[in-house]
Amino acid sequence: MAASTFDRELAVYDAKLAEHAKRYDDMVEAMKKVAKTVGELTADERNLLSVGYKKVIEPRIACCRKLSSIALEPSVDAASTNQVIEYWEKVETEITDICADILSIIDEHLIPSCKPGDPISTVFYLKMKGDYFKYLAEFRTGMDRSEASDESLKAYEDGMKIGREQLPPTHPIRLGLALNYSVFCYEISFSPERAMEITEEAYDEAYPGLGRLNEEEYKDSNKILQLLKDNYTLWNAEISGDESCFDSILATI
C-alpha cells in the first residue's frame, strides 16, 4: 500500500516538474498514470491532467488552423498546397490521437471514479469530454464531423444539466462549462442565437452572486464572467456586420 501511495505521489511530482520545465508531453504521461489508478483524482491532480492535455493539444490546433489559412492563400501554387495539406494531415492525426487518448481515460477511469453526490468532478470531466470531441469535430468532415459534434453536444448538455441542479451559478466549473459550450454552439453547431442565449443566461445568473464570494472565488468566477462578456460583445458585433471582428479568436478555458 505504501509503495502504491508513493508511486502516485511521485507521478504527481513528476507532472509538476514537467509543467515548470514546459515539457507538457512528459506532464501528460505522468498524469495518465495517476488517472488510471484506483480512486478519484484530487482537485490538484484533476487540474494537472487538464492543463497537461490542453498544453499538448493547443499548439497543434493552432498549427492546423494556420495551415488551413495558408492553403487558401491565392499566392500558393498547387504543388505547395499539396505539401501544406500533407503536413496538415500529419498534425490532424496527432490531434486525433491525443483526443482519443484523453477521451478513453475520461470514459474508462475518470467519470466511473466520481463519487455519488460529487457534481464538481463529474461536471469537470463532462466539460473536458465536450471540449475534446469539439476539437475532433473542428477538423473532421461529413459523418465523422457529425458524430463528433453529437458526442460533444451530449457531454456539454449532460454537464449543464448537473451543473444547473447541483452547483451554484457562480461556481467557476459551471461557468467554464457554459463558456466552452457557447463557443461550441457558435463555431461547430453554427447556432449564434443559442451561443448568445447560453452566455447571457450564465452571466445574468452568476453576476448578482459575485459579492457573496470570498476573494479567491471572486477572482476565478469574475475572470470567466469577463470572458463570457467579451465573447457576447464579439458575437453581437459580428452579427451586426462589423468586419473587424471576423478573424477574432473566441475565449475558452
Could you estimate the helical fraction of the residues in percent?
A: over 70%
Determine the number of helices (DSSP H or I, runs of at least 4 residues): 9
Low-confidence spans:
none
- What overall geometry do the principal axes of the alpha carbons give? globular
Number of strands: 0
Strand content: under 5%
Major pleated sheet:
none
Roughly how many Å apart are the termini? 36 Å
Series of secondary-structure elements, N-terminal to C-terminal: HHHHHHHHH
Cα-atom radius of gyration: 19 Å
Structural class: mainly alpha
How does this model look, in words?
The chain is an all-alpha fold and 253 residues long. The chain has nine helices and no strands. It has helices spanning 2-20, 24-35, 43-71, 78-113, 119-139, 142-166, 172-187, 192-206, 215-239. Helix 1 runs antiparallel to helix 2, helix 2 (24-35) crosses helix 3 and helix 5 runs antiparallel to helix 6 (142-166). The protein is globular and about 60 Å long. The model has no long low-confidence stretch (mean pLDDT 92).
